Known about the structure:
Elements: H1 25-41, E1 45-47, E2 57-62, E3 65-78, E4 81-87, E5 90-99, E6 102-108, E7 114-120, H2 121-133, H3 139-142, E8 146-148
Antiparallel strand pairs: 1-2, 2-3, 3-6, 4-5, 5-8, 6-7
Bound molecules: cobalt (II) ion (CO).
Cobalt (II) ion binds next to helix 2.
Amino acid sequence: MIREIVQIGDPVLRKKCEPVKSFDRELAVLLDDMKETLKAAEGAGLAAPQVGVPLRVAVVDVEEGYFEFINPVFVWQKGEQYGSEGCLSVRGKTGNVLRPSKVKVVFSDRNGDRYSLVAHDFFARAICHELDHLDGVLYTDKADKVRTVED
Ligand code: CO
């Protein structure tokens, strides 16, 4: 089911999200809904608070594939990249953000199994952007300038 994407100004986007404790049916439904919602919105990533759920869950859809991150934590971050970002919760805007060029994250899948992954370039940027959402941080907090884009 496609869920409504909350917009900047909604306090849920500023919450420090809680870790997932139960890898249950409710989590599976949330993840399936987030996937459907992200595909419909044609975005690169979506975090649970963006659909009003303050849990440490994010999904990313990039060239490397589709990934579900539950209770993700950075192991390390290396290098720098400077480039443009947008956010499904900040419609019609874009801004340049400095991010690491390479990151390693550990995370659980929907069954509660723990994995790690190394991501580069845009994939790393997408992970950083989504993990920020889990701490109530938006890219607009970090961008040096946010501008309006035309459709
Ligand atoms: Co976002």
